[in-house]
Amino acid sequence: METKKNVAPSDLSVMQGLKIGFALTGSHCTLEKALAAMKKLRELEALITPIISPAIMQSDTRFGSAASWRERLCLISGQDDMIDTITKAEPIGPQAPLDSSPPKTCIF
């Protein structure tokens, strides 16, 4: 099965206003690529809610400090805060503040 690398410009408008929970876990070596994908989604006017694991929240590594990753996540997502605790994540289930999934035509 071949994966689409780009989406036709007429299809990109479906991302506008889409509420996406963008989760980052402890794979620090892939954070740059993940943030690049988040930036593309923001350029398409998707609404991003950053979700981070304790590893991202607290760990300084050779790939960057925890504080710098949090700062960049807020800057790119356009949010002042992020979901960084179980308590903050719990409402996602019953309140459904995020869209369930991106359209199938949008594969990055």
Detailed description of the structure:
It is a single chain. The protein has 108 residues and is an alpha+beta fold. It has one domain. It has a two-stranded parallel ribbon. Strand 1, helix 2 and strand 2 form a beta-alpha-beta unit. Helix 2 packs parallel to helix 4.
Characteristics:
single chain, about 110 residues, alpha+beta, 6 helices, about 40% helix, disordered C terminus
Largest sheet entry: 2 strands, parallel
Strand residue percentage = 5-15%
Strand order of the largest sheet: 1-2
Percent of residues in helices: 25-40%
Shape: globular
Number of strands: 2
**What count of helical segments does DSSP give?**
6
Order of helices and strands: HEHEHHHH
Structural class by SSE content: alpha+beta
Distance between the ends: 15 Å
> How many domains comprise the coordinates?
1
Rounded radius of gyration (Å): 15 Å
Oligomeric state of this protein? single chain
Task: Give the low-confidence spans.
Answer: 102-108
Summed over residues and divided by their number, the pLDDT gives a mean of 82
Question: What is the fold's blueprint, element by element?
Answer:
Blueprint: H1 9-12, E1 19-24, H2 31-43, E2 47-52, H3 54-58, H4 66-77, H5 86-89, H6 92-95
Parallel strand pairs: 1-2
Helix pairs in contact: 2-4
Question: Brief overview, please?
Answer:
The chain has 108 residues and is of the alpha+beta class. The protein contains six helices and two strands. Helix 2 runs parallel beside helix 4.
